[in-house]
Every structure is written in C-alpha cells, then in structure tokens.
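thread: overnight batch results

M.L. [08:02]
morning all. the overnight job finished for the chain we discussed friday. pasting input first so we're all looking at the same thing
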Amino acid sequence: MRVFKLQFYSALHVDSKGSGEPEVAEEFIHSDTLSAALCLAWNSLYPETGDDFFLSPPFRLSSAFPYIKDILLFPTPAWNFWKETDPLERKKLKKIQWLSKGLLECVL
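M.L. [08:03]
and the structure it wrote out:
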C-alpha cells in the first residue's frame, strides 16, 4: 500500500451533502468523493478510455485522513475499546476522534 499526502495551498471546503454551507463541512475527504474526483480528472485527460475506467478503476483508495508532518491519523474505531478504562478517564477519551498509526495498532 502506498500513502499519498495531499497538500492544499489554500482553504478547502469538503461538503459531502452538496449544500455548500460551511456548517456541514467534513473534516476529511471521503473515499467516494476522492475516487469520483480522480475518475473525472482522468476522463478529462484521457477521454478515449470511456466508461471502463469508471466501472473498474485500476486503483483502490481509502478516505483522505488528516496527518501532522509524518504522523498519519486514523479515525478512532467505532467499538468501545475504552471500556477497561476508569469511568472518569473514559469520558475524556471518548472525545478523541483521531489516533496515530501506532496508537491504532495498540488498540487493535
């Protein structure tokens, strides 16, 4: 698997609902949004490839998760892995939305 870090030089508004309203902006780019953007860009560069590229793209990708320098971040798993923690500490930990790769590997 290869990791590509997207760098934006200006503000980016990711709106999966299509409303254009700032209050529904997403924190990251979902895989279907990213895949559609890549397919449309490919089609504009190579229109002769036709629908085959859209129906069976030659790549697989995940959502575009945030990162800080060399630290890749991943969404906190949905299952309750904090259940062994002290209840007072658990309340704080439940607010964590992103984990580094090392932390994610520890909880999995």
